[in-house]
From TrEMBL:
InterPro entries: TRAP_TAXI
PANTHER family: SLL1037 PROTEIN
Organism whose genome encodes this protein: Undibacterium amnicola
Keywords in alphabetical order: Membrane, Transmembrane, Transmembrane helix
Name recorded for this polypeptide: ABC transporter substrate-binding protein
Highest classification ranks of the organism: Bacteria, Pseudomonadati, Pseudomonadota, Betaproteobacteria, Burkholderiales
Amino acid sequence: MPKIKFTLISTKDALIAFGPIVLMVIAVLLAAYYVVDPAPGRTLDFSAGQENSAYERFAKQYAEELANNQITLRIHKSQGSQENLQQIADPDSNIDIGFVQSGSTTEKDAIEKGLISLGSLFYEPIWIFYRGKKEITSLTELKGKRINVGPDGFGVRRLFQQLLSVNNLEETQVEIHQLESTPATVAFIDEKIDVLVMSSASDSQLVQMLLQTPGVKLFDFVQAEAYTRRFPYLSHVVLPRGIVDMGKDIPSRDYHLISPTATLVAHESLHPALISLFLQAAKKIHGSANWFSKQGEFPSDRYTEITVEPQAEKFYKNGPPFLQRYLSFWMSNFLERMWVLLIAFGALALPLSKIIPPLYVWRVRSRIYRWYGQLRSVEHALDEASPEQRQQIAEQQLRRLNEIENKVNQISIPLSYAEELYGLRSHIQFVRRRVQSGM
């Protein structure tokens, strides 16, 4: 007699009972992964600034930080803040985010163009360098001077126009030049222009060189506080004595400067998950102390006229999202996007746990119970047989019982259901005895 097969669990029945539900859940999760709040893109376009500028240098640092999370940041060169602003706002442009100097737009215009701010990053003081024995104490003394403010894309010209206006000067009363930073510095050294106006971070090589060049003087904004009251996007900062070179005492006194800030501006279509990632990178890049800012002063939700995105505000108040503190960016993003479905699945777990086990039990027991129909048909055939046919019918049904028993002995069934299998075998013997007694 063939050996009866026993197992601890019926793999086939378990797959039939649990499989459709599992496949359905996987299908729903996969559909949700692409439909419900799509995942952020892995490639972004960043508008920085001129070659070798502070904007370009910082953009490369952002690219390195984002690369750690498998995100590629494509850096695009530009003339500066104004061009960056236009590119980000342009619906036909592929630029997602970039550096914009505070004061480059208004809150109303930013809202109309769908721009959002992720916060301010660092001070970009207005540096006004000039030559001459006489010290200039007011911008009104620049009347008739040859002044370089850089190309229109820099954003310095717009700001300088505002400074002239509050000093009752028109742009026509000075000779404006629009050379880029490096050729403008060369022209200034060669005395082809009288005044050099720049807006740059303190680590600019050109600024540090000019601060140490004999005969070059830095304009001291003695009315700095008044300027910041007239223009809220400006800050009053101080260039401390000796900060450039303490041994040579450069500068030889404190200088008061006015400063816009570089802000991180994006289009409102930027994926919310990337906002926190950019700000974490900004904290590493801009969080240390420098000539004008204290440790931890930047990034900040202040000093920007463009509305700070709510997700960024949460970062400034609470730090990175909880999951991003302990998991990789992509894993935390997946869980954040899927939480609604995970909660819904959790709510379904209880009813599913009551439905699936009985289905599994039914599947296992049905492999035993279906043979009782065969036994019943054997008895029915014997009962319906006439006395003349009874012997022949009984022999046929005995052969049939042997076939049934052989097949039953091949059943693979979990040990927990062995009682039903032995019951079936005993019932087969019962029917066999009844058939034999009727012969």
